[in-house]
UniProtKB/TrEMBL annotation:
Sorted UniProt keywords: Cell wall biogenesis/degradation, Glycosyltransferase, Golgi apparatus, Membrane, Transferase, Transmembrane, Transmembrane helix
GO terms for biological process, alphabetical: cell wall organization
Localization: Golgi apparatus membrane
Organism: Maribacter cobaltidurans
InterPro entries: Nucleotide-diphossugar_trans (IPR029044)
PANTHER family: GLUCOMANNAN 4-BETA-MANNOSYLTRANSFERASE 9 (PTHR32044), XYLOGLUCAN GLYCOSYLTRANSFERASE 2-RELATED (PTHR32044:SF80)
Protein known as: Glycosyl transferase family 2
Segments forming a coiled coil: none
Membrane topology: Multi-pass membrane protein
UniProt-recorded Gene Ontology molecular function terms: glycosyltransferase activity
Length: 494
């Protein structure tokens, strides 16, 4: 019986390790694409905005919901966009249910008096959440191109001039820009969020786009061709990541996406862990929902090559890697005892080297993305090493939370779109504790995270009597990661 259970544990453990390894190989391939793309001199047809006949009409959509702390900053910033007023419309898609509605209406009225075409669009209910708001606004949008910004984004005044020009190519359906971070250095939490997002917006977006593989509109800081949205079936609110959903439907219809790494659009990162939790949950569950909804269409599509299908499947499986990592972590302690009990199974544990190799691959990949944003120097490399292992540990600490999100997504369990609270906080002298949108209750997952913290402390202890320290560094990072998530969640509340 014990041997049978051991075989089951080893089988699950090995499959999860292999999936992580394949994911790391996909990332390595994206790195090769990324580096080759950086060496190319890119040319593309562009609108000549000096010719009035070539200036397209643009609608800017601002989907907002209870954004009291950032609404004034958002509207002030958008009003500074440099573009002919006769060719620009701004829609504030306001689903708010709090006092911010009146303040927003007043500020919009003031902007209208300056000659800006800006409309305050309200709905009677939040059907479809953000996707529903975007779809409602699209019905009356005058623009042939639709730029979208979430409430915490602050595009530069020349943002439209840098982006809309690429729609001269009639096959381009979306132009997406790279996210920047207004408060990158606020805390350890913001630094590791920025680190992870930078990897996505350099390595992954450029690496996929360079070879014509599917990428995703990131929900904000990009522009859609209105025709593309309608041709792909319009916005749908049946997943928590409506942006990924529409992106894949559009690319399956042969629309091309243009990614601009050199155009940065700054935004605010969540400064408190409860906000990061809700954002991570939505992104990871939405990713799994889209895998469930879309993967068969990708696999069976006749108009895309095999390699694009492979990267598409791996892309849709991104969030599911948390589940693989969590399974490897959870089973690593039983595996340690199996190894030291059943000597004939020793060979199986050479598979653990796949995890080491995967980690080394990610370490190399993330270094290239780090230095592309932060620059390269010896001191920078030392900072990178510290940040990588901090990020890795905290990502392990989030693995339970994100795995539960992934499981809900794969099982088709529906849940409400929970927005990420915004703070308008950029330095440590400012406090988030008065933010009325923060969750007041502790996450029930914290009990399990505390138990896992103790579990991996036991894993570290187990190395001593077994005289087997191969997994000790892994268990140490898991202990640190779950400790960070637990204690931050316990202390960082409004």
């Amino acid at each position: 019986m014990a041997l049978t259970i051991s075989y089951i544990i080893i089988a699950i453990y090995s499959i999860a390790l292999l999936l992580i390894f394949f994911y790391s190989l996909a990332q390595l391939n994206l790195l090769v694409n990324y580096l080759s793309q950086k060496r190319k001199n890119q040319t593309a047809p562009k609108f000549n905005l000096l010719d009035p006949r070539e200036i397209p009409f643009v609608t800017i959509q601002l989907p907002v919901y209870n954004e009291e702390y950032v609404m004034e900053r958002l509207l002030e910033n958008i009003a500074k966009i440099e573009y002919p007023k006769s060719k620009l419309e701004i829609q504030v898609l306001d689903d708010s249910t709090d006092d911010s509605v009146a303040v927003t209406a007043q500020r919009i009225s003031e902007l209208q008096e300056t000659g800006l075409d800006i409309q305050h669009i309200r709905r009677t209910d939040r059907t479809g959440f953000k996707a529903g708001a975007l779809k409602e606004g699209l019905k009356i949008a005058k623009g042939e191109f639709i730029a979208i910004f979430d409430a915490d984004f602050m595009p530069s005044s020349d943002w439209l001039k840098k982006t809309v020009i690429y729609f001269k190519d009639p096959e381009i359906g979306v132009v997406q820009t790279r996210w920047g971070h207004l408060n990158r250095d606020y805390s350890t939490l913001t630094k590791i969020q920025a680190f992870a997002l930078d990897a996505h917006f350099t390595l992954e977006q450029v690496g996929r786009n360079a070879k014509g593989h599917f990428i995703n509109f990131n929900g904000t800081a990009g522009i859609w061709r209105k025709e593309t949205i309608l041709d792909a079936g319009n916005w749908e609110g049946d997943t928590l990541t409506e942006d990924l959903d529409l992106s894949y439907r559009a690319q399956l219809k042969n629309w091309k996406f243009k990614y601009l790494e050199d155009v940065e659009t700054p935004a605010e990162l969540p400064v408190v862990i409860s906000a990061a939790r809700s954002q991570q949950f939505r992104w990871n569950k939405g990713g799994a929902e889209n895998f469930r909804k879309t993967v068969w269409s990708v696999i069976t599509a006749k108009n895309i090559p095999f390699k694009t299908k492979f990267h598409g499947v791996m892309h849709l499986l991104n969030s599911s890697m948390f589940l693989c990592v969590f399974l490897v972590a959870l089973l690593s302690i039983p595996a340690l005892y199996i190894k030291n009990t059943f000597g004939h199974l020793d060979w199986v544990f050479s598979l653990l080297n796949l995890f080491v190799v995967s980690t080394i691959i990610l370490f190399i990949c993330y270094w290239f993305t780090y230095k592309s944003v932060q620059g390269s120097s010896f001191d920078g490399f030392i900072d990178y090493i510290k940040l990588f292992f901090t990020f890795f540990s905290v990502a392990l600490g989030f693995s339970l939370h994100n795995s539960l999100a992934v499981l809900e997504g794969h099982m088709g369990k529906r849940s409400e779109f929970v927005r990420t609270p915004k703070f308008n906080i950029n330095n440590l002298t400012e406090s988030w504790k008065g933010n009325k949108y923060l969750a007041k209750k502790l996450s029930p997952n914290m009990i399990l995270e505390f138990a896992l913290m103790l579990y991996f402390l036991f894993g570290m202890y187990s190395a001593v009597p077994l005289n087997d320290f191969g997994l000790f560094p892994f268990h140490f990072m898991l202990f640190l990661g779950f400790s960070f998530v637990f204690f931050k969640s316990l202390t960082a509340r409004a």
